[in-house]
Design brief:
Distance between the termini: 21 Å
Helix content: 10-25%
Order of helices and strands: EEEHEHH
Largest sheet: 4 strands, mixed
Structural class: alpha+beta
Strand order of the largest sheet: 3-2-1-4
CATH superfamily: Ribonuclease H-like superfamily/Ribonuclease H
Number of strands: 4
């Protein structure tokens, strides 16, 4: 799996949205992929300045949908291992975008009651 957020030009932050995408393979050979794309606010309206939102706001649902697609395409098989790549973030932004990722895959399988 992998994820990234792209933002509008500096003068457009807060006026135009950012686009977040999460991609995941749907086969054990890692040759077929599905993607979840979301349009989200580019700036946190509760803060002043031009701080962009690096966090994927709908990450839980994106992860759920990709894991469900893998599960359905592979006749109920769960991924044996999940490797997650995230594009480069500045050091001071590191904790927030990644803070919940460790819990998502197992949490999603329990929520979906995959068997």
């Amino acid at each position: 799996m992998g994820a990234d957020v792209t933002h509008p030009a500096p003068g457009e932050i807060g006026r135009k949205p950012s686009i977040a995408a999460v991609v995941g393979s749907t086969d054990p050979a890692i040759s077929k992929f599905r993607v979840e794309v979301r349009v989200q606010a580019s700036k946190d309206s509760s803060k002043e300045g031009t701080n962009v939102i690096e966090q994927i706001l709908d990450m839980e649902l994106c992860t759920y949908n990709l894991l469900k697609k893998f599960h359905d395409i592979n006749n109920g098989r769960k991924p044996e291992r999940i490797i997650f790549y995230r594009s480069l973030c500045f050091i001071n932004m590191y904790k927030k975008p990644f803070s919940n990722l460790q819990l998502l895959p197992g949490m999603e399988f329990r929520r979906a009651n995959f068997r």
